[in-house]
Predict the 3D structure of the following.
Amino acid sequence: MESGYDDIAAYGLLTGHVDETADVVAQMRAELEEAYASAPQDAGVRVYHEVDDTFFAASSNSFIGSVYAELGAENVADEADTDASGYPQLTEEAVVAADPELIVITDEIGYGPEDVAARPGWSEVTAVRNDAIVVADADIASRWGPRLPQLVQTLADAVAAAAAVPAGR
């Protein structure tokens, strides 16, 4: 996270907006801290962040995956990320077997939650059964910037909602 703040500060220095940038960084830190604190850190919600329909996923070694780790979620793609690339390709069977409690897709992939839910065999996946498929803003989810707290709060709310569903539902 610190490197992201450093990048923003560097842009502020380059553009002659040091004070304004310092304010942005301070606000981001406060908002991110609040968003992370709002997630149930001990829930261990299993999350699957789908990058595309060929089952590439974001593991904890990616930028977005580090957000899930900070939220206390268990990333179902981590085991497949043997080379620590951050974006392993899973099989459909592996995703179903991992039984994520939360599935996150982005708004730029060309399909929605109903398409994910309609995949053969996915009706038994906990996230599908509990309507816990979230669409994140791809622009925010793919890069570090001042709107990151919005995304983290959305994901924290989704993790909290998934954690609140009674087991076996």
Q: What stands out?
A: The chain has one domain: 2-164.
